[in-house]
Amino acid sequence: MNKNLLNLNKTSKKYQYYAVFGLLFSLLLSSCSAKEVKDVSYKSISISAENTELLRNESLKINLLLDNKATSNTKDITCISSDPTIASIINYKIYGLNTGTVKIACTTSDLVSNVLDIKIIDKTVTIDDPTTETPTEPTDPTNPTDPVTPTDPTDPVIPTEPTTPGNLLVVSYIDVGQGDSILIQTPNGKTILLDAGPSTYQGRVSDYLDQEGISKIDVLIASHPHADHIGGMSYIINNYEIGSIYMPKAVSTTKTYETLLETIKSNGLTINTAKAGITINIDKSIEIKIIAPTSSSYSDLNQYSAVIKITYNKVSYLFMGDAGWTSEDEILSSGVNIKADVLKVGHHGSATSSTQEFLDEVLPTYAVICVGEDNTYGHPTEQTLDRLDFTGADVYRTDQDGTVVISTNGQTITIE
Question: Which strands make up the sheet holding 76-78, listed edge to edge?
């Protein structure tokens, strides 16, 4: 992932300039007790999901060596200088999946702010001993007793159990143009369909379900009553077996919404209210929580959106529907944990969704925007894309990437 690599090219003058600051702060930090992690200066930092947990937003001042590039893998993040006599403290913001994947983003331009902090966000770490170095022997690829570790910096940690189709959580963000339709297949084989796109794309949704061999939707969820989310839902109800259906208590006077209500009734289904605090129990291996809407009345139908968080072991997904700033503020005020590895961006990337404050709490590694090509709304907006970029998320768009499939075994994430 090239955008996560740091460009540390510097002139010799800048090296000398930062070397002075590095030396001063190294002396300052070295006077602190080694037991106070946040005050100790080290040359490298190791990140692992199994190690001692740091408090959220713990700041660490780390003395790193500069180089023309920064290298990282799932275990180590180190900057090595071509001139080992040059040292400086540089500013990183480190983002990591709780599965072990690490992303690095420099938060200043040309490192102009002299001395800054390394911030570990919601991550567990161990610190290398600065006084001793233990040599490591190279792994013998011919020796079956030697473990094989990933070398790709984007690889998550190796799962403790083998991955099989039966224990995967598979989330398909179906390309339905300017709309949402997301198929979720749980590890035990249950199915959830979150929205069904506009009516003009109902054939694409049904084709995808047929392709996956699905004849029953165990849980059908309408995030909110806008046509680009529920337009194809009546067709789904009439052509597939439906276990249960969830909808927020939002009222619309559109023909699309009225038709959906009639279809639900004629098929003998009862609507379950989608609201904060509801848990959907269809698979014991995963947790499905509805965390919004938190209120019962809004002037904007988008704020009624059912916001859903699904957690499978160490990996979490957050689905925002068309929720905007109002809903995001209420979610933040509720204190619910919204940290998620994968974010379905709210309202197709509209400028009125995905505030920086909200994204800083979610800290997604991947973000998916369901959006139509050349749409007349200007989605996704540059403001939203900039905020996602600042957060450090890799962005996938259905208008550019088509249907996006993100699966996990609870430890690692795979994107198709």
Answer: 71-72, 76-78, 45-47, 125-127
Residue 182 has which token pair?
Answer: 């997301």
- Residues 262, 314, single domain; the answer is yes
For the segment 86-106, what is each residue's pLDDT rounded down to a tens digit?
233 233 333 332 333 333 333
Residue 213 CB: number of other CB atoms within 10 A? 6
Domain residue limits at 400 = 166-415
Are 117 and 186 in the same domain?
no
CA distances from residue 197 to 318, 355, 404 in whole angstroms, order as listed: 18, 25, 15
What is the structure's pLDDT at 14? Answer: 42
Report the amino acid identity of residue 181: S
CA distance 165 to 187: 8
Residues 179 and 95 in one domain: no
Assign 316 to helix, strand or coil.
strand
Residue range 268-284, pLDDT digits in tens: 999 999 999 999 999 99
pLDDT (0 to 100) of residue 166 = 60
Strand partners, 395: 367
